[in-house]
Amino acid sequence: MSTGSALLLVGACAIVTAVEKGIGPVALGGRTLPPWFTAVVALLAPALFAALVVTQALADGRELAIGADTAGVALAGVAAWRGASVVVVVAVAALTAGLLRALG
Q: DSSP string spanning 48-94?
């Protein structure tokens, strides 16, 4: 892919994203959403994040795989659950995965 094609693709994606983000406010027209709907929307972000973490931690191409990255994510999850800061959580994941990869 040439540089011009890549830049055109990135620009097109930016325009499509901006249009998609603008559709919601235009469609609502200043009306407020019902409380039940905002409660559902609040649950979408954690569910999407969990799905992304699981697919990245357990997928290796087209197959399920458990490896060093899975152990790193698991220990980072425990650290986050115990109230560690984001920096500590990322460090735990990186160190665990790095050590396991170095050992095996």
A: HHHHHHHHHHHEETTEE--SHHHHHHHHHHHHHHTT--HHHHHHHHH
Give φ, ψ of 63 to 5 degrees: -125, 160
Look up the pTM and report it: 0.54
Q: To 5 degrees, how large is the angle CA 54–CA 56–CA 58? A: 65
- Angle of helix 68-81 versus helix 35-58 axis, rounded to 10: 140
Q: Is the pLDDT of residue 24 over 80?
A: yes
Other C-beta atoms closer than 10 Å to the C-beta of 94 total 13
Q: How many residues does the chain have?
A: 104
Look at the block and give the residue holding tokens 């425990």: 78
What digits encode the pLDDT tens for the residues 53-73?
A: 888 888 877 788 888 889 999
Q: What Å distances lie between residue 68 and 28, 40, 54, CA to CA?
A: 46, 34, 14
Structure tokens at 22: 């603008």
- List, in order, residues 6 or more apart from 52 with CB less than 8 Å away: none
